[in-house]
Amino acid sequence: MHASRITLAIGAALALAATVVQAQTKWDMPTPYPDSNFHTKNARQFTEDIAKASGGKLQIVIHSGNSLIKHPEIKRAVQTGQVPIAETLVSILANEAAVFAFDSNPFLAPSYEKQRKLYAAAKPVLEKRLDAQGMTLLYSVAWPPTAIHTKKEINSLADFKGMRLRSFSPITSRLAELFGAIPVLIAAPEVPQAFRTGMIDAQINSAAGGVDTQTWDSTTHVYNVQAILPQNMVIAGKAALAKLDPATQKAVRDAAAAAEARGWTASEAELASSLKTLAGKGVKVMSPSPKLAAELQEVGKKMTAEWVAKAGAEGEAILKAYGN
Q: Are residues 57 and 179 in the same domain?
């Protein structure tokens, strides 16, 4: 009888320990962006929503600003189980598969409404690819769109000829080439100095990026062409999710749906705020002339065709679903 009581006591202790372990599940979530960024703020709200909805069963600790895993290695870290969840720029994975650059075809989806439609077309393709690699797409949010900041009025692509145009990626460098400009790859923190020293005459950057680089010191016009609305995505390992009880899994997915809706709204607010700031600093906020708009569309079609050639059937499926 005494032995039986000991056995029961041990069993109860083990059950309690298991409950405590479940109650204290902790995930580390790397993100490449600083705490001040709206994506990171959105992710923090996402983790707080999960903690609340799960009754504290799942605590997610955000490691911002590349502090835990460097950006190029983030997706691989989730795939291998090094971390259970993370945020990454989708197009940073384009070297792995061209489909991850679905959001980087200039002028294919030049508005938030069109980008949402493009994302809806691409989402099943992304989910299938991630699922095959042991991951789940939880949510995705667009950055504010790319604009063009110049020192003069631009009425056609001919006005870009010979201009030293700052780019920030292979895609935007190709865009500058097709404009007839000379692409100069410059990291964001170096943009003000590049303007001062004459390395660049204009820049491809979002309106928010224009505010960050105080572009009013060097440029007079910003063309809100909404060339590209690149997206981030938050992904989780399927194995990590499977270890959670059904109620906690639901808490994660519900919080993800809320984060996606909230994030897109925040992105649009960021654009409006940035354009207002630029205008307040004396920068002329412009829409492209009909001639320039038509020329930009032709450039976009060429770059989209180049992307489809690389993305193959996946790219064709996305464009068909999108309606192009």
A: no
- pTM for the full predicted model: 0.86
DSSP structural state of residue 206 = E
CB 104 within 8 A of CB 228: yes
Judge if 176 and 240 occupy the same domain.
no
Residues contacting 269, CB < 8 A, separation 6+ = none
| Lateral strand order in the sheet of 164-167 | 182-185, 164-167, 202-206, 146-150, 221-223, 284-286
| CA-based torsion, 288, 189, 101, 268: positive or negative | negative
Q: What is the pLDDT of residues 154-198, one digit of tens each?
A: 999 999 999 999 998 888 999 999 999 999 998 888 999 999 999
Judge whether 38 and 266 are in contact, CB under 8 Å: yes
Same domain assignment for residues 239 and 204? no
**Does 41 share its domain with 129?**
yes
CA atoms of 30 and 74, how far apart (whole Å): 7
